[in-house]
Design a protein that fits this description.
This protein is an alpha/beta fold and 484 residues long. It has helices spanning 6-9, 20-23, 36-43, 53-57, 64-72, 76-84, 90-96, 100-103, 116-130, 153-164, 181-184, 193-206, 222-228, 257-268, 291-303, 338-342, 406-411, 439-442, 447-466; strands spanning 145-149, 168-173, 209-212, 231-234, 240-241, 254-256, 283-287, 307-312, 346-348, 350-357, 363-374, 377-380, 386-389, 392-395, 399-401, 434-436. The protein has three domains: 6-130, Fumarate Reductase Iron-sulfur Protein, Chain B, domain 2, CATH 1.10.1060.10; 145-239 and 400-466, FAD/NAD(P)-binding domain; 243-397, FAD/NAD(P)-binding domain. Helix 3 packs across helix 9 (116-130), helix 7 (90-96) packs antiparallel against helix 9 (116-130) and helix 10 packs parallel to helix 19.
Amino acid sequence: MADPKGFITTPRQTPTRRPVDVRIQDWREVYEPQSFEHLQKQAGRCMDCGIPFCHSGCPLGNLIPEWNDLIWHGDTHEAIDRLHATNNFPEFTGRLCPAPCESACVVAINQDAVTIKQVELRIVEEAFATGDVKPLIPDRLTGKTIAVIGSGPAGLAAAQQLTRAGHTVAVYERAAKIGGLLRYGIPEFKMEKHILDRRLEQMEREGTRFRPGVDVGGELTGSALRKKFDAIILAIGATAWRDLTIPGRELVGVYQAMEYLPWGNAQALGEVETPLINVVGKHVVILGGGDTGADCLGTVIRQGAASVTQLEIMPRPSDERPVSQPWPTYPMIYRVSSAHEEKDNRIFSVSTEEFLGDRNGNLRAIKIVETEFIDGKFEPIPGSHREIPADFVFLAMGFTGPERSPLLDQLGVGLDEQGNILRDANFAANDDGVFVAGDAGRGQSLIVWAIAEGRSTASAVDRYLTGDTQLPFPIEPTTRQLIV
């Protein structure tokens, strides 16, 4: 157990964020350094509860009380071993996961939860700093070959697990660099890309082979993959974005969030001097109140927009946990991200009815209306229409499933009614050695679910290839009926 009275005597305290007027001048991560002594006090708030519900709150089953206790006692070496036992990439989840474990923390029944996410992050950062993160090279090779299509967190987790099991793994990515949305969708101020690169270096030293810039399904067909590899893992994500087909959608200035965010990252990394989509001095509207919308907001602020407004069709959430979402569920409450600290101009309960353009086909404004939820649908409130000036609109309304690429037909996989790739209880899409990991089979979800699915898929593939496995199988997949 950590500090027996820590949850009583020590208040929850997260690391300090850099001053707003300072951090919006650069693209670096927003948090100030945290002393190890402060971290130990926060870990000491873990109360050694009889049933640690944080385990069930975390899809990976992270051994949270164990590494909290180890940090309290200053044993960083054992702490990283316990953390890596369930999570391949705690430096990603420690920055990007919304921490359902904290919502399930027993302390959170009537107090502020333990800062689980921050303890997790500092454990792995301490480990990288002291050289405790080393390549785990397999003792022998099995001779089996596996292709992983997609290099997001699900694909990377599956690849690392299978490489360590002795298989020869190649990860294919259509973009110019490995990382998927970790590289191209997550802004630099949330996770600097050298964090990703150092983990990829470890994986390369372990033996994972990376193949960026390859159009799988085009230049490399499904039949060619079958001839070359003993198993194939589809970890292509749910990148088919949700659109808004209203009048004016064709106007210049209306973009999807994922058409915009990669340019912000390129600018942050100095890869381009002037991004193709650049909002400096412009009026911007963001449609969508989730994490992607907040990512757009922080990027817009750093590019120097004249104004930015974020719209959400749902009502403003409450500040407290709703009665309908009791502990230990993850509640829908009002949250303020680091980007909202920098500029919070959110408008709730509104719907966009039309994009308005000038005579040259450029966006000039949007027409919105206030809404109320009646009989299961949003109804406009009469007399509440108005316009908001806008040179750019970014659609951050989520994703509907995997893209319908030729590869899916080439491999003969099916889709469910939501458009996700069908798989069975062993993550298999068919009997020919094709498996599905992450959002491609689950639908749009969290990074922690993607890593858990990647680890479980790796276990299933290892068993398929060898008849047995020692790899963990942390979760069961979501399975649905085939569209006929």
